[in-house]
Structures are given as C-alpha cells and as structure tokens.
Design a protein that fits this description.
3 helices; two-stranded antiparallel sheet; alpha+beta; single chain
C-alpha cells in the first residue's frame, strides 16, 4: 500500500513525455522527428488519488489493529477458560482419589456380605462416572490448549 501511495505522490509532479516519430509515404518521403510533451497538474495536482491511497492505507491500518485486538481478546478468553478448566480438573481429581478408596472398601465389604452388593456397585458406578468426567475434562483441556496454540500462532508444547 505504501508503494501505491508513493506512486500517487509522484504523479502530482509534471510528467515529461518524449517520443520519436518516424513516417514514410508512398513517394519514399521519410519524416523523422521528436515530440516532447508535458502533463502539468495545475489545478488538482493528483490530490484525489493521494487522498484515496492515504485513506486506504489508514483503513488497512485500522483493520489490522482491529484484528490484532480481536486476537489478543480471544487469547485472553482462551487462557481464562483454560485456567477454569484446570481448577475444575483439580477439584474433580481431588474427589476421585477418596472415592476410589471408598469403592475398594465397599467392594471388600460387599464380598464379605457386610453390605448389599448393590451398594458396592453404586459406589463403583459413581467412581466410573467421575473418571469419565475427568477424561472428558482432559479432552476439553487438550482442545482448549490446541485452540490457544492456533490463536497465538505458536507451538507451546505440552498442555500444563
């Protein structure tokens, strides 16, 4: 765009045209000559073209800044969402470890006949549900990490 603006600026100055003319008629008369011409921008001096190029340049700069702001905003949003997901994962992981111990205790008690087998199976199902939720959250975090890498344009390695 700078080249177009530079061209419009150069076109505001007088342009010199130099040409060579050669002609021949049927009587073997040859004519050679030189023609010189000037384009004198007396009244507008190409101000319209300069203004258009300058406005286009400003528009491109504004569009670039808007895209840059949008990308930064998107990255900030993705980072915030990723941090929320990490906190959710930490909370879910903290629930899984004690639940796993409880399920093992319930299964031992169910095998001995101290509690109903259905109670042990219900606890096992609750643990399985938490593990599935943890796997789904891990997948969502991985997808968010990839989205963050795509938005930033940088390969940031493994997800934290």
């Amino acid at each position: 765009q700078d080249a177009n603006l530079r061209l419009a600026l150069l076109q505001q100055y007088p342009r010199l045209n130099l040409s060579l003319n050669a002609a021949r008629d049927t009587g073997a008369v040859r004519t050679n000559g030189v023609a010189i011409g000037f384009d004198l921008p007396l009244w507008n001096r190409n101000r319209g073209a300069i203004a258009v190029q300058d406005a286009t340049r400003e528009q491109l700069r504004a569009e670039y800044e808007a895209r840059l702001f949008s990308t930064r905003s998107e990255i900030t949003t993705l980072i915030a969402a990723y941090r929320v997901g990490l906190r959710q994962r930490d909370g879910l992981e903290a629930q899984v470890a004690p639940l796993r111990q409880t399920v093992e205790a319930f299964e031992r008690a169910g095998a001995r006949g101290d509690i109903a087998r259905v109670t042990a199976e219900t606890a096992r199902q609750a643990l399985t549900d938490k593990e599935i939720a943890l796997a789904v959250l891990d997948q969502a975090l991985s997808e968010q990490w990839v989205a963050l890498e795509l938005a930033s344009g940088a390969l940031m390695g493994e997800a934290q």
